[in-house]
Specification:
The protein is mainly α. The protein is 79% helix and 0% strand. It contains 17 helices and no strands. Helix 3 packs parallel to helix 5, helix 5 packs across helix 15 and helix 13 runs antiparallel to helix 14. The protein is globular and about 55 Å long.
């Protein structure tokens, strides 16, 4: 392994792969657009209704289209041009955001129209994600895919830090402004995706049958390594969803107010961004499976420390470690899914993977709320951290191939390494 000092400047990766650079900036623009829209829509719906229930319905309006569209979106990404799907999906989101901006300027916006636009944006994102994720492996050599995943993860985390603050700042200039800026960012993403020179070859279109429709689920079920890493992430996030309870910690336990809540919300993203930067310069090379399980254990321990902490500083440190550990798991999972899935199946497999991620985040918040009602805020958080650790040890036994997984490389390369050589 090369030392960090021998590593070339990090930006050289983008210079060496200009198509990936366009793709990367497009993802950041799309993520910023979504974060700005989410803040603006939530604030405006609450201003119009003063109903916490209405706020919860915004999340549901985004989640339902994803669930309904998962299998069709994955199937489309394997049958049609992925770049074109991204362009159409992003254009749909830009159109919905433009409608929200014009409705505010024309003073004819209503809550049902906000929900209709949010549903349209959710449907667009549902089709964009599998096509987008399946396009990325075509833009860099397979040997550099883990580094590309780290770049993509870091960009998303950066947008997660900047986007909400930018959305609130823009909303202060008028509710139409954040929607207009988000729509412009979505159009920037469209132009950047359209400028990618790589042309995704569309293979022979197999007949649309129930078997081909559910092929992504079947493939994951038969691949123990992929099934293990996706399900591990699902249950770790489901149980360790401490971030859903941050308002209660800020108000009732740490007594830090709104400014402290903002800092607590930013801490995991800061840890994620820092770890992404590290993995860009020092990609995971050996003992990948063990490092992923170690990261999940750190995630669980950090959750427990945060739950028991009465110090604001210690709580921030715990959340930073939590975010950093999560990125290791994300990079390993995303790289494994991309490397071990044939290109003709990537759309359907990435769609199922996206559904697992979305489900774990949404249900994790629900689980945290239920356990907090039963055991209290601290008890629920500590219980979640312990549950994450238990799941990690259980998964080590259930998926020994994942635990012993060594290098991130395509399945074909592993078969080649395992094949006997002629004497």
């Amino acid at each position: 392994m090369e030392s960090a000092s021998a590593s070339p400047p990090s930006t050289s990766f983008l210079r060496e792969h200009p198509d990936f650079a366009r793709f990367w900036v497009s993802r950041i623009a799309s993520a910023l657009a979504f974060q700005i829209q989410a803040v603006a829509a939530g604030w405006q719906v609450y201003a119009l209704t003063h109903s916490p229930f209405a706020l919860g319905m915004i999340g549901l309006a985004q989640f339902v289209p994803m669930v309904i569209s998962t299998l069709p979106a994955g199937h489309a990404a394997d049958r049609y041009n992925r770049k074109l799907i991204c362009i159409v999906s992003l254009s749909t989101q830009a159109l919905a955001l433009g409608m929200l901006a014009f409705a505010n300027w024309g003073d004819w916006l209503t809550v049902p129209r906000i929900f209709a636009a949010v549903i349209l944006i959710g449907a667009g994102r549902a089709f964009e994600r599998p096509a987008n994720q399946s396009l990325m492996p075509m833009l860099v050599p397979e040997s550099e895919l883990p580094k590309a995943v780290a770049w993509a993860t870091g960009g998303f985390q950066g947008a997660s830090i900047i986007g909400p603050a930018l959305g609130g700042f823009l909303y202060a200039a008028g509710p139409a402004v954040p929607y207009a800026v988000a729509g412009a960012l979505a159009m920037v993403a469209v132009l950047l995706i359209g400028s990618i020179r790589h042309q995704h070859p569309v293979g022979r279109r197999e007949p649309t049958t129930l078997k081909s429709f559910f092929a992504g689920i079947t493939f994951i079920r038969r691949q123990a390594v992929i099934l293990g890493t996706i399900s591990l992430d699902l249950f770790a996030v489901l149980l360790g969803g401490a971030t859903a309870l941050l308002p209660a910690f800020a108000h009732d336990i740490l007594h830090v107010g709104a400014w402290g809540l903002g800092a607590l919300r930013s801490a995991p993203a800061i840890g994620s961004l820092a770890m992404s930067g590290y993995l860009i310069r020092r990609p995971l090379e050996r003992h990948v499976g063990r490092k992923m399980f170690a990261a999940v254990l750190v995630f669980g321990l950090a959750t427990i420390v945060f739950g028991l902490s009465r110090s604001f500083l210690l709580s921030l440190v715990a959340l930073v470690f939590l975010g950093a550990a999560d990125v290791v798991s994300v990079v390993v999972r995303s790289s494994l899914v991309q490397l071990r899935t044939p290109d003709a199946m990537r759309g359907r497999v990435n769609a199922v993977n996206a559904l697992f991620i979305g489900t774990s985040n949404q249900l994790g918040e629900f689980e945290s709320g239920i356990t907090a009602a039963l055991f209290g805020t601290v008890g629920a958080t500590v219980f979640g951290g312990i549950g994450t650790i238990v799941v990690a040890f259980l998964w080590m036994r259930l998926f020994p191939a994942l635990r012993n997984y060594d290098r991130l490389k395509p399945a074909a390369a592993e078969e080649s390494d395992a094949a006997p050589t002629a004497s």
